[in-house]
Structure formats: structure tokens, C-alpha cells
Batch of 3 targets.
Target 1
Amino acid sequence: MKHNRFRAAIRSYASNKYLLLMFLPGFLLFLLFQYVPMYGILIAFKDFRIIDGILGSPWAGLKHFEYLFAGAGFTNALRNTLIIALLKYAFVFPAPIILAILLNEIRLNWFRRTIQTVTYLPHFFSWVILGGILFTFLGRDGGFNRILSYFGVQPVSWLIEPSYFYGIIVATDVWQSVGWGSIIYFAALAGIDPTLYEAAVADGASRWRRIWHITLPALAPTITIMLLLSIGNFLSVGFDQIYNLMTATTSEVGDILDTYVLRRLLTMNYELGAAAGLFSSTFGLLLVVVANRLVKLYDKDQGIW
Amino acid sequence: MHHRTWGEKVFDGVNMVLLLALAFLTLYPFMYTLTMSLSTPVDAKMPGLHLLPMNPTLEAYNKVLTQSGILQAFVNTTIRTVGGITLVLVFTSLTAYPLSRKSFPHRGLFMKLFVFSMLFNGGLIPMYLLIRNLGLLNTMWALLLPGVVTAFNLIIMRNFFQSIPEEIIDSAKIDGAGELRTFTSVVLPLSMPVLAVIALWSGVSHWNAWFDAMIYIQDLDKQVLQLFVRRTVIEESDALASQTELMHATSYSKETLKAATVMIATLPILCVYPFIQRFFVKGIMLGSVKG
């Protein structure tokens, strides 16, 4: 029986041999760069010696993980990462939802489209460019202090003061992502049946009540999906952004798991870096699986799989 | 048409003011940098919002372009972007097409492998060791090959190919075209929208990429534009920040040079932005189709 199934598989590959030839080069590249590194995770459990290779190096058990949690560097990075992650969920995640609702209330098409085009813009630049712009903009004599000076605020070097760091990370992340993030919510709003609003108006519902009882419920499924899609990256709190906005004075509060792993790479401390990386990717995978399960308990038609 | 009440008018007014403020705050950092890059160091020092340069000059651009080695970095990034787009389109479409055909065996299994790679990955260090073992360190291939076939692009392309009516493909085969021939002369011409979206996506991401170049490329003459900006603007500013804090003074000739460097890397994207923006929005909608 098993033998037959094997023969049938061979036969169906043979009859699709041109499709197979088209498929294989790209698929092998994909396996090489996505799955071979997964095998490389093994070094988190080994005492890696370059000459012996990954398989040949002796096992080290959980030594590197114990070391991670015993040392101050990793726990500090983990704490900073969790703080930034929570702050971003509290402020960056809702921002595009609010923007989409505000845009949806605008009746002038040209006005709305202009706002959209302008707010999408920062999405198209790397954090190197945005960082370069922000270093000039948020410096002691930069544009931000020039605006604030009209309100009588004394100039501040925003990027070198550790106590402002999290605020700046949240604010600049909103700046970069709010417009782009609103697209998906705005599209969901476009699907609302206009007669719902007309009926609400006829019943004398105010703007706020219409937003609360029609607009928000219509967004709920999209919000759930976006939450699920983002939760796997819970511990990826924006390496590009943080690395390009960090200064010598903010490195203590700005050190996150990703910068910790990068430092282990640069100091050739591969096992520790791989262990820290494995910790954060496993954590992310677990979060997605659990969150998806929870959403499905609540409503089995929702969820990302 | 119902009559707007006084409360509604206030709501609309406040809403528009809020959105205008957001638009201004979004644009102002860009405008400020642009003005700085076009100002003389003396003008840059003047108080005010600097919405427009007082005496526009290309002095800073001239200096950056002739003295800093930015042109080499610009050329490297351009090669990387063009090469990256080509590789992504060729390999992703070739790999995605068989997965869209019902006759292709085990396609469910293959799709699961692709999806799983979106949920879990080896991480930075195993990836670095792989690139090193392959002997790709310090070569352009280290920047190009890893992103050639990614799950996200592949799924979007496969979904698009699947939406092409079966009859069109079957009739090409009845006319005697082989698989590859059907693919290149029937499927691809029908798939221009998805190819354009993926091309623009990977183009922008290659143009903006810097982290891989930072860890894989050592030689300065092979360095990409973004890293050039990072070295001359961000690392420089970081080093200067603590000093200027003590002296309370900014070197404005340096500020204008930094602003010009940033603008040189920004301009190509700004130039194509009006054209690619709508394609990107379309791409989001393609991506949001549950696959």
C-alpha cells in the first residue's frame, strides 16, 4: 500500500516534470536561506568551535540559557523590550485606527486624499534616512525646538536625554507608520453599508454614537486580524528604528533583545546570541499560536489559520 | 440630505484642524531637512521655522557629491536594487506558478513550509554563519540571495496566478504550448499588476536596506548608500551630541552637509513616490486576501 503511494507520487512528479523544474531553483534557495538557519539554531545548545562546525562541536546543554538569565545584560534588554512593546501596543497600534475613523468622517474627497498622501510618505524611507532627519530635527537647535520656542519651551536635546527616549520612540513610530497603517482600516470602512448611517441619522444618532455603534463594530474583525498578525512580532519592537535613534547616553534604556543579539554577533559570542534569538522567536511563535487559539474560542470563523 | 447641526460643524472643523496638524507634523521634519540642505551655514543659524531657504544654494550638495564618496555608494545601491528586483521577479514567479496548478503534487505541504517560515526563523546569528560558510561575506550576493524567494511575495503571486481562469491556461496547452511557454506567454502577461507590485516592493526595500550590508560587507567601496548615510550622519551626530550639549553650539556647516547627504538618499524615492504610492496601496489589498 505504502509502496503504491510512493510510486504514485513519483509518477505525478514525472508527469509534472516541467513544473517541477520551474519550481525547484527558487524552492531550494528558499530552503537554503529560511530552513538551514533554523538548523543553525543548534549552536545555542553547543560550545561552538569553528573548525568542528555546528554538528561536530560538543553539546553544552542549557548552559548558555542559564548564563543569559543570570547576567544583567540580557535581563535589562528583555525588560526594555517588554516596556517598549507594551508602550507601542498602547499608543502605536490604536493610532491608525483613530486616523482611519477621522478620515472616514471627512466628506471633502480632495482634502482626505491629500492628508492620506502626505501621511503615507514616511513609510517609504528607511530608518537610517528617518534617523538622519530626526537627528537634525530633534537636536538642540533643530526644528522641533523651534516650534516649541513659540510656546515658550526651553530647547532640549531630545535624543540624548534618556528620560525622553521611550516617548520619542513611540512618537516617531506613530509619525512613520500611522498613515500607512490606516489604509487597511480605511478600506474596511469603505465596505460599510451607507444605509446604516442614514438610518442612524434618521433616528437622531449623533456623530459620536454613529462612530461608536456603526464604525467601530465594522472595524472589529480587521482590528482582530491586525492584532493577531502583529503579536508574533511582540518582542521585535523595531530594531531599525531604535538602533538608528540610539545615542551613547540612551544605550542603557534603548538596549533591546535585537541589539543585544547584534552585540553578541559583533563580539563573536555566537552561542549566546543564538540562544537569545531562539528565546525571542520561540516566544513570538507561542504568542501567535495562543492568541489564534483564543480568538477561535471566541469566534471560530476568525483567526489567521 | 440632512441638515448639519451646530455640533456637527464643530466636529468637522476640529477634525479637519487635527488632520491638518498631523499632515504638517509629518511633513515638517522633511521640509526642515530640505531647507537646511539648501541653506548657507549662516542662514541655517537664523531663528524661525525654516519652511523655505532664505538664499537657496547648492553649496552643500556640491561638497557632498564631490568630496565624500557618496557616488560610489549610490552606484552600489542602484546595482543592488536593479539586481534584486530582477532576481525576485524571476525566481518568485517561477516558484509560485507550479504551486498555483492543481496537478502539482504536494502543494499543500509546500505551502505549509512557506507559511511556517513567516512564523519562525533561525535568527541573526545562524544566518550570519550560513552566509559566511557559503563564502558570500563581503559580496553583493549576500545582499541579494537571501530575499530572492520569500513566503510573503510567493503567496501573493500564487494567489494571483490562481485567480487566472483555468480555461485560458488549458486552451494554451491545447494549442500545443508547453508549461514554460504557457507561463511566459499567457500567464505572465496577464499578471502584470502583481508583478509591478512585487517589483516596487522589493525595489523600495532593496533601496532602503542597510542592516545586511552592515554585517556582511566590510569594504568601504562596496558599501550601500544607506550605510553611507548612517556613517556620515547618524554616527557623527551621536558622537557630536554630547559635545554640543556642553558647548551649546551646533556646527552649522556640518548640519547643512548632513542634511544634503540625507536629501541625496531621499530624492530618488521622493521622485517616484507619486507614481508608486497607488501601486503600494493596491499591494496591501492583494496581501490582505486571506491565502
Note: Chain A has a mean pLDDT of 90.
Target 2
Amino acid sequence: MIDWFSRIRWEHLYDAELARNSLPFLLEGLKITLFIAAFSMFFALVLGVLLGIARMSKYAILRLPARIYISFMRGTPLLVFIFILYYGLPVVGVQFSSAVVAGIVGISLNFAAYNAEVVRSAVMSVPRGQWEAATSLQMSYIQSLRRIVLPQATRIALPPTFNIFMDIVKGTSLASVITVQELLYSARLISGRTYDSMTMYITAALIYWIVCIVIGHFQNRLEVRYSRYLNRH
Amino acid sequence: MIEVRNLKKKFGDHTVLESIDFQVSKGEVVCLVGASGSGKTTLLRCLNLLEMPDEGSITIGAKTLKFGGGSVRRNDIKELRRFSGMVFQSFNLFPHKTVMENIIEAPIIVQSRPKAVAIEEGKILLSKVGMLEHQDKYPDALSGGQQQRAAIARALMMKPEVMLFDEPTSALDPQLVREVLKVIEGLAKEGQTMVIVTHEMNFARRVSSKALFMDKGFIVESGKAAEVLTNPKEASTREFLALLDDD
């Protein structure tokens, strides 16, 4: 009954030496991963804030397109979207200068939709009285939003935004299927050469994990900074 | 200073204000009293255009605005708001800003006053409401009474002709009510024109020159505060006051 257990070859679980030797190669891939992730986070955030604000607009001409965009991006797999960009667009004569660019564009456009929803829920969670106080002090909509509401919404949006950032880091691995030689692709190359998939993919997983731990650390620091004004720590 | 004519306001099918008429002269303190749901808060919020009236007209200071003939222009709304300052039941201080930052924010970004000037004026007002020593604290570290006094200073910073108070002490613990009422009373003595929605009847009798009693969207009785709030003519006013006395 526990036959399968006794047949596990534990000695093949992790080849530390292979991991160590392939680390420089993997880190080259990590550079591409971080490159794609950093740009994607930036664009997804900027676009997400704009989309989120448009989604809350009282003008249907802003609200409806934002709504449809968010619905489409949330409702379709990122991998499919990346395929459309990289394999589909060339059919109609549009080609990205490199697979990396296609990856950044795909990931940014897709995750911007999630960011937009985070922005919207955070802004909505700022009490109405804050808007009213700003309005009664003769602030315009933009002034109220920028000076009063968004700073408070930022604090609320931090944890879900960092969830998205981590998803973006992990989502860059999808770029490996359009030939971007990032971390996962590099791991797969060595794994194909050495036939040690276990070691290589575990190593890749650990590297992703470490990156996300670092991101989580930034999140904690920002949360402390943005909660300074609250009388509880 | 304020003239309200034939003001009407509906929320959906429900009429909240039915042809309201009243005037407030410069230096007058007017109390709006009445049961909850009588429309007094809505009326006050209409004066600041936090609610948009459906019909009628409002004059505050030098600005008259008519309602009911299409949408109101944004600049007109801004202009009318310039003449009034609002104090809310729930204070609504900006939690991410210190007391001083709270009160200089609008003067700097709306009125383009130099920061140094705003801070100087801010200090004067904060000492007036007894909050100078707390100027660097965040609202979360203050009691309700302290927050409300800071909120009063914040509204005064804009130098409004009229101060509007929406149940300024209703959210306060009983022992904190007096410190806020004292500040408002001080303003009354200085001749600040004010409209106050309140349930503090003794305070209303003491501080206000005129009282308006509202019921079901109408002003049922108005006159000298001492008379309306002590010897009301209308049955509904008497009933309301009797209910309060039971406390």
C-alpha cells in the first residue's frame, strides 16, 4: 500500500551542486524577469489608477469603456492575451520589436484591470464625509481626489496592490512561452540538458519566492509609513 | 446675509423640503430645530450645496442662485460656497493630516494664500478654539471635542460670511459637548453670522437670536429663539419640546 512511497528516490530530490553551478545562468534569467516585472508593475499601476478613476466617473463615456476593458481583461487568461499579442497581431501586420516588449505590454494591460478594481474599491472605502468636507472647503473634484481621498485610499489599497505586484512577478513566467529567456525559461534550458527537472524547477521556485519576500518587505515598510497618522500600531 | 425663497427638495418621490422661506441678517445666529427627518439637516446642506435644491433660490452674501431651470453652473456653485463654512456632525477632519495641515490645506490650495501666512492665521484661530497646543497632532489622537474644535477652526480659515453647523455636538460624549458649545458661543459674541442645527435646547435659547422649528419639510414656526423654544404657539413645536424635556 505504501509501495509508491518506498519507491521514491530521495537521492534525486535536490542536486545542490547542480543548483549552485547553474545559479549564475539562472540569475541572468532573473534579470529579464525583474526587468519585465518592474516595467509591468509601473505601467499596470499608472494605467490602473486612470482606469479605476474612469470606472467611477459620472460620465458614461469614460465609465463604460473602462468597465468593458476591465471585464475583458479579468475574464480572459493572461496567456491567451499574450498569444494574441505575440502570435496574433503579426497576422494583421503588427509586430513587437521583441518578445520582451510583448510580454511587458501583455502583463501591464492585463494587470491594470485588477489594479483598477483595487483603486476603485479603495476610493469607495474613503468615507463620504471626507469628500463633503473637501467640497465644503471649496476644493474641486480633482483637488479633493488628489489631496484628500487618494492619500487615504492609498493606505487601503497597499495590501491588494502588493498582491498584484507579486502576481506580476510570477506572471512574467508566462513570457517564457513566447521565447523570452527569463528565469523559468533558463531553468527549463538547463533542465532539458541535465534531465534534472526537479532541482531546476525547485531552484526557480525558490528564486521567485525570495523576490516576493523582498517585495513583501517593501509592503510592510510602506504600510507602516502610510498608517503613521493612525493612533494604533 | 442669507435669503432663502421657496426652496424645494425631493429625494426621489419623497419631498424633504416644501417651499422654505427664511432670512438671516448679518450677525444673527439662527437655530434650526425639529425632529429627525424634519428636513433641517437637508436644509442646511442645501445652503452649502452639498445637496442640490430642486426649486427656489438661495442668496448668501453677494451671490444669488436660482434652482429649477436646468442644471446649475459649476462656477455658480463655487461662488455661492465661498460665502459659507460648514461644520459636520462627524467632524470629517482629514485623518492623514495634522491639525495644522488640516486647517491650512484649503487656504493654500484653494485661495492660494502663502503657506507662512496661512500658518500664522491658523495659529490665531487654533488658539481661539483652544487647540494651539495640539496643532501637530493627527485627528486620531484627539478627543471628539478637540476634533470638532479643530474642524470649526478649519471652516473659519476660509473667512466665510456665514458658518453652518450640522448638529455639531450630536456625535460627542456628554462631557465634551460644553467645550464645543463654548467655542460656538464665543463666535456668536463676536458677531459671526451662523445657522445651527442642534438638539441642545438650552444652548439654542442662550445663543441664538432666532429659531426656526421644522416639521415634515415645513418651517412651522419661527421667531425669537426665547419665544419659539420656550412658549411655542404651534402644537407640533410644543410636542417636540415636551419630548426633549422628558430626558
Note: Residues 16-55 of chain A form the longest helix (40 residues).
Target 3
Amino acid sequence: MIKSLFKIAWRNLIKRKVFSSISILGLAIGFGSAILIYLFLSYHLSFDDFHPNQDRIYRMATEEHMDDINYSASVPPAFAKVFREDYAYAEKVAKIVDREGLVLDVEQNGGINKYSKNIMFAEEDFFKIFNFPLKNGGNAVSLSAPNTAVITESEALEMYGTTDVVGKTFVLENDATIEITGVLKDIPNTSFLNHEIFISFENLEKYSEFAHGENWGGITTNLQCYALLKPNQDIATIENALLELPKQHRPNSKNTHIYKLQPLSDIHLNLEYGGLNPVFLVVFGIIGLFLIAIACINFVNISTAQAFYRSKEIGIRKVLGSFKRQLFWQFLSETFLISLFAMILGIVLAILFLPAFNALFEIQLTMESLVSVQFFGFLLALLLLVSILSGSYPGILLSRIVPILALKGKLNHNDTGGATTRKVLVVTQFVISISLIVATLVISRQIEYATQTDLGFDKESIVMLQVPETMDSAKFYDLKERLKQVVGVQQVSGCLTSPGAGDTFWDTTVKYNNRPEREDFSISVKVGDEDYLNTFSIPLVAGRNFFKNDSITELLVNEKFAEKLGISSSEELLGKTLAVNGDRVEATIVGVVRNFHDSSFTDEIKPVFIAPTVRWYNELGIKINHLNTKSTLEQLKKEWSQTFSNHIFDYRFLDERVAEQYETEQRYLSLSKVFSGLAIFIGCMGLYGLILFFVGQRKKEVGIRKVLGSNITGILTLFSIDFLKLVLIAGAIAVPFAWYFMDVWLQGYTYRTQIHWWYFAISIVAVLVLTLLTISYQTIRVAIKNPVNSLRTE
Amino acid sequence: MLLQLKNIFKWVNSGGQRIFLLKDINLTVEEGEFISVMGPSGSGKSTLLNVIGMLDNFDEGEYHFLDESVHTLKEKHRANLYKEYIGFVFQSYHLLDDLTVYENLEMPLLYKKYRSSERKAMVADMLDRFNMVGKKDLFPAQLSGGQQQLVGVARALIAGPKLILADEPTGNLNSQQSEEIMQLFKTLNQEDGVTIIQVTHSEMNAAYGSRIINLLDGRKIGD
């Protein structure tokens, strides 16, 4: 019986090649997308699931309560020691601190290779908490002595050309000679840890005095503290006990710390603590379902439309003794067969597009992830789901056919049913397509808004150079002067970070005008020299710029600062004092600058002060003439290398850095572009199938109409008017639907674009045009045929 | 007695008027009869055949088939009943175009849960009996009308029904093909004892049977 069912299913497939191809291709695209999306989701959900004690591993985090709450995935540097020694909750506590772009000298074949690497300074216990084993197995990592390091296998290969590097050395930042004591297996992609080189925590002091010391004064996000708790601990109890710590160690701070334990499994997908936005995954999942739904809808549409063709077969089978149930199963098995083909094709498509997909979303999915029990389980579940979803309704329709009507050929379309359902399904497809187009428009408009709106500073043609080591005044002014002489350079400014530096910020609290208490809001520190305003074109609204100085005596604030203080006139701030840096420095406000967007449009503009301090200059912002970028850069490199001869020249353009803040949005955009494209493609294919069928069915009618004098336009209208009506209905449904969801999305931005009515107009018109094109091809083909041919067959 | 119709009425309502398709039909069919139903177009011949074949319902009356009261049975039981005892032959053959001769013959058996080896034997037997062994792998479209109807009859016979209902079985055939099919029916009736009810327009075909029923406007006017 089964064999016979598959046989007839196969022959049906072969016989109706076009319809079969449309169904299979549509489903295959749906399957392919679903597979990629599944891999993507399981990739993100599998982060750090390979540590044997993962349920007991926590990251220490801080809620900073000021006028609002700031979530920081870090704790003060002194926290680890106290938690380890004064409390009995943890088996092991370890901190790690990462530093970017340190220079490593590796001796090889008599020469010296320089590398710029991101380094993790780690306490030895870190490797006892987590499962990052050594190459030869075990976790006996030795990092307690100063000047020791462990590196991963691939890093060893890159730096030394071999993985047998225990005992070999490299020079860190032209200073300490570090010996490699172990080689780690490569860290899995699905780990919060993406470092390759781990150096003893003892070496950290030189590179971050603050993070290395036992400080309670502040938090640096470079530091992370992990703990392996003893079994069966109650997190609430621990967090409660930790409430004591700030009272003890930070009694006078306006910034009230509350320490939290963040479970390991929460790290990758907790937005507040710097993880990925889980909404992103939900959106992804929904889009995957949409695509599968559209493909199923296609399938249902085409097969119900074909029910008419098959009614005779159904009639005969019923008369020969088939039960409804048997017919239903027959149809379901046909659907299964088609789905199976589609799935095989889908897998091939997914494999073909895997590299592009990886590049688009900056992930590393591999073929190996395809070979797993879960994945096959997923495929099977998907296959069954799709077979049942798209097979059962046509199956019910077909098995309901009344045999004698079918045998007499007296069935018409309404009797085979599904006409209304088909309309509903087509409308659903259009709704999804239109909504996705609207989403694409709104997202791209918001990105455009964010990147093209005046940010309050100039980001074009500005090169950012690193300052790899702390400079004294003489060295700095010498370098600055020489850089200024380079042809094409217009302005040079030393600074801690440029405006629009996004994640890299430094917040502090200040005391205004000798008030007894510090203000209850935090203020961002932009350290920069007297050319900061000129270089980044930040306009003054009151007062003047500060004079050239090595350290803070005068400073600038922004308008937001006045607003936060509740002062309406910027002028009023001038001449007032501001105590900064833990009240150690008092400086005079000499000017007020216009507000500028220091971080992404999701965040409100913060109060800022700008002041010079040479030893904190971390970067050089250089405004250049964009006409001769290449030669200017070469000259800059020359001058820079003269000062920092042992370092590697690296530069970035400021506009790229600003654009980076919208990386997530860019991904949303690529996502909605790709998938709305696919949705529309599958939808059009289904529509083509339907039209093909309707035109085939009404050939005779077309013939008669032509004989009676209708022209091609008339016939095109005849066929398209119904579908165009459906597009309009879908538009009417999609407008409030898409409007609502995109509005919710935009609410996430403090500064956002408007949703205009013409987004919807464009989307609907686009779908209308595509529909018309899809319909026209077939219709016109039939319409230009000689009517005699279609009439003669009768 | 194979079947008995008592005061069967069937009607449709059209424009406030009740149009009778069958009006007070009484008919008893004994096993082994060969009945021809005749009458002009629209007289209710096919409707009567469909009612007897349980493919169509009636609105009033009683229908007994063997020991069962068809009018009280649920659809599923009715289907079981005709599956078991009735074979159908159609004017336009109604073979499945996608299946070969062999597969067309096998299909009713598939629905009756015969084992694979049994099916093989029964189909082979039927092919042999109808001299179609050489054509078993051909599709219906590759056969002449007469040959297709031969397959149709073979298919109706294969599960060993007590009754064959044939709705103008020769309507699409030429006279020579007609004669062959009618001869076949006669043989089946006389040698195998299969009861046959056929609808026909042709006096000549009717003459093969043992009894003629005349219908006019849904009413039986002669037996």
C-alpha cells in the first residue's frame, strides 16, 4: 500500500513538473532558511554549555544606583579578594582583565616578529573554574608566577609555527620577557571567552594599576570576576550578604553599588550586562516561522487549486472502496514525499549559503554542527510539521469530494472547495511580505537617521591613531607638532576617546560650585587637549575654550550638564568650580559646548565635561583633507613610528567607529532585507503557480472572450483584478500590524525617525507591481494565443 | 433475493418546486439476474444505478441489500458493504491515468487488505482471463477504448463481487467493441453467476439481459 502511494505520488510529481517545482523550491527555500536560523539560534543558545560545573559558575556584576540604574558586568577590583577570603560561599574566585592591542615580540629564525594582540591577564584559578583544558588534557595551568603565560594551539601556530611552545618566550610591550608554561586547546567559538593569550595577573600592574590594585573606588569593565560556588547555594542569600560591602568600603559614594551574581548561562544573552539582545533571537525565530509558513501556504494553495484536477482520481478511488481516511493518508504521504525532496534541497541550499550567512552575522557555524542528534531531530520534526501543516488541509478537502459528482465531471471549483481559504492564505502571504518591506524601510531609515543626522560633532575625514604608551608633555607636544606639519592634516588633538566612542566611556560624579554633596548623576569624562573642539567641530554655546594646559585647571561642560543641574542659562555656569576626580581636582568651568551624541541613539545624551590631562591621552584625533588620504596616512605613520618605534601603527576612521554603534541595527537590516526578499520570492512563486492553474482552467473562457472581442488588457484585468484586491486587503491588515511593531522597535531609541505613511504606500505598491508582473507573464501568454486552438479541443 | 427497493423517492428542490428524480421505485433483484435499465435521457437511470450502488442517497423509502437495511446504515458501513459486494463499470471507463493496467487492477485489492502474494495471483489471473498479459505495463492512454473498458470490467470483477453495476458501459465504444463487452457480460452472468444491472440506450444491448426495466421521469413504467 505504502509503495503504491509513493508510486502514484512520484508520478504525480513528474506529471505536473511546474507545480511540483514551485512547491518543492518554495519549501526548499523555507527549509534552507529554517535550517540556517536553527543553527544560528542553537549557536547562540549553546554558549558555555561545556563546563562541567556550569550551574555553579557565576559572574560578579554590579548595579550602580544613581539617578538611574547602570548595569555593569564587573565589580571593583578589590571585590574578588574579599569574596574569596571573607565569605564562605565560593570554592574558587578568579578575576581576569583584558587589554587590547599590546605589542608582543616573538623571536623566530633569528629575526623578531611584532604582533599586536589582545591579552587577558588571568588568575590561575580561572582555569580551575572553567573547562578550558590544556592541549594534553587536564587544567593544570600554571600562571601564579609573574612572567608566565598560556596560549592556545592556534595562537602558538601563528606566533611560533608549532604547538610545541612550552618554555618558549616572548617580550610584552618591549618590557617583560614572558615564558609560556602551557598550551591550551582552542577555546570554542561558543564561549564568552575569545582570548588566545593569557598572562599572569601579576604582570597586570604595569598596564592597569587600577584593575590590579585592591580598589573599591570604581569599576572598569575590562575586569571580570568569576566564582565557582559551593554546591547548593542560595543566590539571594549571597546577594543579600554582599549588600554590606558598599557600606563598608564605599560609605560616601553617591553611586550606590549592589553586587549581583550572574549565572554563566545568562552571560551571552543578557542585554543589560552587555550580552546579545535576546529579542534579536526571537525576531530571528519569528522570521524563520514566517518563511516556513509562507512556503506551506504556497503548497496548500497549489494543491487545493489542483484538487479539481485530481477529483476524478479521488472519485474512482472512493468507488473502488477507499475510505476518507485512506485518501487523507494518501495525500499526506504525497506531501511528505514532496517535503522530503524539498528538505534535501534545503539542506544543500543551507550548506551552500552557510559561509555567506556566517559572514553576514559574524558567527562561526561549521558543517560539524550539522552532524548532531539534535539537528537530525530538528530536521525530522520540521519535516513532519511541514508535511502535516501543508498536507492535512488539502487532504481533508480531497477526501471530502463526492464521488459521483467527480466521476460525472460535474464538480466545479467551488465544490472542490478551498477557494476562500486560498484567498485568506494569499492575503496572509501578502501581509507578511508587506510587513517585512515596511520593517526593512523603517530600520534602514533609522540607521540612516542615526548616521546622517548631525551628531553634534564632525566625524568625516578624521583619523584616530592609538597612543600605545603613556607620554609626558614634551613627547606629546613634539609628536603633535610633527603630525600637524604633515601635508593634508588640518587639526590634531590628543584625547582619551573621540566623541561618539560608544562603549568606551568613563563616568564619574562631581561636586558643583562648592556644594556640600556630590551631584546624584554621573557625568562622562572626555579628556582632550585644547584642540579637541576644533578637531571634532564641537561648537561652543557660551564662554570660551580652555587654554593649553597639561592638566585640569579649566574645563568645558555641555548643555545637558546645565539641564541636569536645573540651570536654564548656560552663561550661569561660567566661572563656577567643579570638583572632579574624587574631589581631588577643582577646576573652573570656562565654556559650555553644544550637546553631542557620544553613544548610540538608543541612549540619551549624557552630561559631559571636557578637560586636558596629557598622561591620559590614549588616542590622537587627526582631521585631514580627504583628497589625499593615502599619502597623508603614510606620512602620519612615519611621524608616529618615530615616537613609538616599538609599536605597530594602526588607525581607524571616526565615521567607521560611529557606524559600529549600529552594528546590531545593520544586522537587523541585512536580516530583514534577505528574508523579506526570500518571503516575496516564495510568495511570487506561489502566485505564479496559482495563476498558471487559473489560466489553464479558464483557457476556454479566454478563447470565447477573445472571439467576442476582448483584447489582451481586458483579459489581463480579468485575471489580475482579484489578486490586486487581495493585495489591497493585505495592505489594510499590514499597515496597523507593521505600524505597531515598528513603533515598538523605534521606542527603543531615544532619538528616532518617524514612521511615514509613504513607507506603507511604497511597500503596498511594490507588492502590487510584483503581483502584476507575476500574473502578466502567464496571462499574456495565454491571451495572445489564437482562440481557435483553445476552443477546438472542446 | 439480492436486493430490494421499496417505495424509493429521491428529489431536489429547485426554485420552490420539488423535482423528483426517482418516484416510488419498487424493485426486487434476485441473484443471477441480468437487468437492463432503459429510458430516455433524464429519466433517472443513472440515479437509480447510483442509489443501488450506494454512491447516492435517497430521500424516502427502504433499501435492503442481502440482510442489511441500507437506509439505516451509516456511511462507513455502506461503504464497507459496496466495497465487499459491488463492482462498478463506467461509460468513460474511469481508469486512473497515472497507473498501469496492472496497477489499476490491483487497486481495489489494496483497499481490501489482501496480502501482496494474493494480490499478485489475483491480478495475474484476471490478466490471463482477459488476454491482457502483454498489456499489463501499459498506461490507459496507450489502449483503445475497448481495451480500456475491458480493464474497467476486469477491475470491477477482480475482488469477486456479487453484483456489477454498469452505467452505459458501451456508450463510448464502436459496435464491434460493444459486442465484445456485452458478450463478456453475458458469459459472466451465465457462467460465473454474477448479477448484472446495466443502464443502456441500446435495444440491442438490452437484449443480452434477462429483464428490462423502463423508466420515465423517475418513475418505473415497465418491468
Note: The interface with chain B takes residues 1, 4, 7-8, 11-12, 15, 312-313, 315-317, 319-323, 326, 403-404, 407 of chain A (CB under 8 Å).
